[in-house]
Amino acid sequence: MDGVVPLAAVPAPAAGGKAAVLGELARAGFPVPAGFVVPLGTYRAAAAALDLPGLLAARGPAAVGELLRTRPLPPVLLAGLAAAEEVRRDAAEAVRRSATGEDGALASAAGQHDTTLGVRGVAAVAGAVRATWASL
User: Fold this and answer.
1) Residue 74 and residue 46: Cα distance in Å, rounded?
2) Closest by alpha carbon to 42, among 77, 9, 13, 89?
3) For the segment 40-51, what is each residue's pLDDT rounded down to a tens digit?
4) How many CB atoms lie within 10 A of CB 33?
5) By the 8 A CB rule, do 130 and 71 touch?
6) How far is 101 from 69, CA to CA, in rounded Å?
């Protein structure tokens, strides 16, 4: 599943705090719903291809959000989502942000970005990923 990592296999540095903890719990045998993670590197590669800093400087944050909401996801990520959805057999997904360093001693970003519940199918999951990225 290039572009995504099964939750139980996600390494902590590649995922946000909540996803990393859920992965640890799954590996320890606790009952955790099956899921997958779009690793930080996948997002960074997609963002780098869009020159978001240049767009932000030229047109502002609204333009960045609009681009992220409407631009197709990279083919490797779409293929990974399709493979993950095949494994999940069209189960309802929750698409949310779980950033690295999201919650710390000095700040918390929990709940400040889009979460989409009950998402089914590759196209809907891809749209929810784009919406979540646009809300960063």
Assistant:
1) 6
2) 77
3) 888 888 888 888
4) 11
5) yes
6) 24
Q: What is the DSSP letter of 119?
A: E
pLDDT exceeds cutoff 80 at 114: no
pLDDT at 41 (0 to 100): 86
Tokens of 31: 């009952």
pLDDT surpasses 80 at 104: no
Instruction: Write the DSSP assignment of 2-54 as a string of letters.
Output: TT-EEGGG--GGGS-HHHHHHHHHHHTT------EE--HHHHHHHHHHHTHHH
* pLDDT, mean over the chain: 84
> Torsions phi, psi of 118, nearest 5?
70, 30
DSSP string, 85-118: HHHHTT--EEE----TT-B-SS-B-TTSS--EEE
Dist CA 34 CA 48 (whole Å): 30
